[in-house]
Design a protein that fits this description.
Layout: E1 8-12, H1 16-25, E2 28-36, E3 39-44, E4 55-60, E5 63-68, H2 85-88, E6 92-101, E7 104-109, E8 116-122, H3 124-138, H4 145-151, E9 155-159, H5 170-173, E10 185-191, E11 196-202, H6 205-211, E12 217-218, H7 221-235, H8 247-253, H9 259-266, H10 272-276, E13 283-289, E14 295-302, E15 312-313, E16 316-317, H11 322-341, H12 351-354, H13 362-378
Parallel strand pairs: 2-8, 8-9, 9-10
Antiparallel strand pairs: 1-11, 1-12, 2-3, 4-5, 6-7, 6-14, 10-11, 13-14, 15-16
Helix pairs in contact: 8-11, 9-11
Length: about 375
Amino acid sequence: MVLNAGDKITFQAQHLSQLLEALTTKGYRVIGPTLRQQAIVYDQITTIADLPAGWTDEQAGGSYRLKKSGNEAYFNFNISPHTWKKFLSPPEVRLWAATQSASGFSLEQSEEAQPKLAFLGVHPCELQALAILDRVFMQDQFVDPVYQSRREGLFIVALNCTQAGETCFCLSMQTGPQARAGFDLALTEIVTDNEHYFVMEVGSASGAEVASGLDYLPASPAQLEAADNAVQQAAQHMGRQLDTDGLKELLYRNYEHPHWSQVAERCLTCGNCTMVCPTCFCTSIEDTTDLSDTQAERWRKWDSCFTIDFTYLHGGKIRYSPRSRYRQWLTHKLATWQDQFGSFGCVGCGRCISWCPVGIDLTAEVKVLKENDMAIRSGDLNV
């Protein structure tokens, strides 16, 4: 059987190692979910023993916990605190180094050879996040060479969601729980009392080439139905909802609403939400010199719109209050991002809710603004 994009096949769970071997043989460094420091994070994996089989996570506002899942599923987790962006746009990048000699300064550009990467277990919402980063870094007048060098040749094995976490709202953002595009292969893991197998969809010619080396069979109607039912189960159990109808206009109308101050009373401006967000891309530039003053380096580092110095201009900061910084972040994600890039900057992964130390929930804050806005427009409330 010659595989093509769109084909759906199945293989037994014990043959998952063949997928890793096929990717490794083709020179890919495989990044996938694994257990580290009481969390499921993304890191290099070399065997299926590195995967978090038998573990799942419980997430809520300001809460993340690991627990035993009760089965041997390899991918029975909701979302990792890590995001794939750190492998494509690293937290720290040296842009150049300058060294002084007797003849003057010599400039060394940072042009490290990048490994071929394969991402294993990319949730559908994270596929959309990668598409957003592609738009930001590669599809405009200015292209980020660091991101581009890592993104080109990337192999993506997506993972259709068969469960939804308490903080997930990808269905509202139309980014999940099923992968529709942007992958080379897509997996749906099925675990029952008697069976443990994967349904795989081929998404590209590269994916067909890798899948052809597996011990697979064409997916039966019953297996396809089981996969579809598992994804629908996740869709029906979303932990959060966000009404996106007229959202941009809502936020623009309520830029001075007093509710922003109520949120600011809880917000610690720690920046956790931006660090775990799969689409936030703000950075700052830092120049350093050594003690001899003969070498200087320029570094690009992740930054956050929640840090007070992020908007510093000569003479002071533009957004000095927690109120203004939270409002900037939320309004950018859900409103001005649409004007910039033609889409929401949020994919509904829920990380910002889980990893906010005080459990601030953007879906709840938007709901309050919408309810107040409706009351004001109907004349039932004065602000």
